[in-house]
Protein 1
Amino acid sequence: MKVAVVGATGMVGQVMLQVLEERNFPLTELIPVASKKSVGKELTFKGKKFKVVDLETAVGRKPEIALFSAGGETSLEWAPKFAAVGTRVIDNSSAWRMHPEIKLVVPEINAEALTEVDKIIANPNCSTIQLVMALSPLHKKYGVRRVVVSTYQSITGTGVKAVEQLENEYIGRAGEMAYPYPIHKNAIPHCDVFLENDYTKEEMKLTHETKKILADDSVLVSATAVRIPVVGGHSESVNVTFDQDFEVGEVKNLLKNTNGVVVQDHVEVNQYPMPIYAEGKNEVFVGRIRRDFTAKNSLNMWVVADNLRKGAATNTVQIAEYLLSKDWF
Ligand code: 2RA
C-alpha cells in the first residue's frame, strides 16, 4: 500500500504522519510530497527514512491513497491528476467540500455514503468536524432546527506564521504578522476572509458544511468565528434548538454513547472540556451541557477538539482506514 502525504512538511502534514504511525496504518511505502524547496529532504517514518518528492514524481508512483493538506489551489490542480492514475485522494482544503459530486466525510457520521467510485473525498473544516460530531446523535434523536455557534479557534489553524507571531508578541520581538492585529492578549473576530454578507468564509463553512454532512438542508447554522491566543485546539459555544423536546440526562447519555465523543461534564468539581486537555487527543470533548431556559427545546453545550487531529489529520486517516476496510484496492 503506497500512501502519499501531500503537504508533508506542514503542520497538518506532520500530524498526519504522526497519526499514521500511531495507528499503525498498513502502508508499505510512504511518499512525502512538499514544495520544490523541500524536495530531497528526508523524513523519518516508523524508523525508516523517506525522501520528499514533488507532485509530478508522486503521481508517477501511483499511490493507492493520497492525503492532501496543501491548500486549495494545489488540490484543484493535482487531486484529479492523482485520481486519474487510480489514487483515492482525501483532501483537507476547502476546494472540493461543496462540490455536488464530492463526499464530505466524518467517518462516524457518513462514511457509509462512500462508494468504490469516489476518488476524491473532502475532509471537512476543523471547526465543522467537532460541531457535527456533537450535533449528529442529537439530530437523529430530536431533529436539529437551528444552531448558533461561536468558535474560539486555535492559532494553529492558521499555521506556523501565526504561532511565530504569538511567540514574538509574547516576548516583545517584532516579526511577521499572520493576522491584521496582535493576537497576544487579544481575540480577533476574523477567521479567513470576509464575504459580501459580512460573514467570514470560516463562518459560512460551518453553515454550509453542517447541512451537507448531516444531509439535511433544513438545518440552520449562524456562526461567529473568533481567533484566540491558544494552541491546543478549537473551542465552540453551541446553542441548538430542536424540533423535539429532550431530557438533559438523555442528551448526555446519547453523547456518551457516541463513538469519538467524550463527555466531560461535572461542574461541581470544575470538570469541563478545555484545549489544554484536548491537545494531542483524537476525540471531541463535550461539556457544559444544559437546557437553554430562554427558548423552547433549546440546549447549550461547549465543544472542544484538537483542530490538527480530529479537526484534520485524524479524521483524514480515519477516512483512509474506512476505505481500507472495503475491498476496493
Ligand atoms: C482555521 N479552520 O482554523 C481554519 C483552517 N484550518 O484557520
Protein 2
Amino acid sequence: MASLSLRHVTKAYPNGFVAVKDFNLEIADKEFIIFVGPSGCGKSTTLRMIAGLEDISSGELYIDGKLVNDVEPKDRDIAMVFQNYALYPHMTVYDNMAFGLKLRKTPKDQIDKLVQEAARILDLSHLLDRKPKALSGGQRQRVAMGRAIVRNPKVFLMDEPLSNLDAKLRGQMRIEISKLHQRLQATIIYVTHDQTEAMTLGTRIVVMKDGVVQQVDSPQNLYDKP
Ligand code: ADP
Ligand code: ADP
C-alpha cells in the first residue's frame, strides 16, 4: 500500500510528441484506480513513468510523499503486470516467479517461502515445475501476477492484464484480482477497455483523451447516470 501523487506530469518523447500533458492526480493508500480512454491516449506512457521505465519530462511523481522522479525502477517498490504476460519461456513457473527475487539477491529459503505462498494464493502450487507453454492462458496470467506479488510491492500497475483471455476466464480473473486487492491491501493502477472491469474493480476511474485527463470520478457517477 502506498499513496501516489502526480503533479503536472508531462511526457514528451524524443521525437517531440507529447503523449501526456499536465497529469494531476492524488491516489490514496489502497485505492484501485482505473485508466480508460481510446488507444494512444497516454495510459501506458503514464504507467511506465510511474514504474520508472520512462523518464518524466516535467512535473513530479511522489510515492508516500517522496519525490521519485530520479529513483531507479528496481528501487520504487512497484510491480507491473502486462497483457502479454512476458514470461520467460525456458524457465519453469517456479523460476519465473522467483526471478525478480533472485535478481534482488533474496536468500534462497525466503524465495522458496514467498514463491510457495504466492502459488498457494493463485492456485499454482501443482504447476510449479511446468514451462509456460504447458499452461493455459489463465494459468499464465496467474504466473505473471505471481511474479509480481512475491515481491510484495506497495504498488501494482496492470496494463490490460486480462485482455488476451476469453470472456469466461476474464470474469474469473476479475474476481481473483478483486480478492488480491483486498488481501494484499495494495494500491493498484489498472488500464482496461472493459467497462465491467472498470465498474467492479475501480474505486475511481480516470478518463484520458489525447494525453489529457478529461474526468476523474467514481464508477457509480461515471456509468450509472440515468
Ligand atoms: P495508450 O496506452 O493509451 O494506448 P500510449 O501511452 O501507449 O497510449 O501512447 C500514447 C501516444 O504516445 C501514442 O500516440 C503513441 O503512438 C505515442 N508513443 C508511444 N511511445 C512512443 C515513443 N517511444 N516515441 C514516440 N511516440 C510514442
Ligand atoms: P538454482 O536455479 O539456483 O539451481 P533450483 O532451481 O535448483 O535453484 O532451486 C532451488 C530451490 O528452489 C530448491 O531447493 C527448492 O526449494 C526450490 N524449488 C525449485 N523448483 C521448485 C519447484 N518446482 N517446487 C518447489 N520448490 C522448488
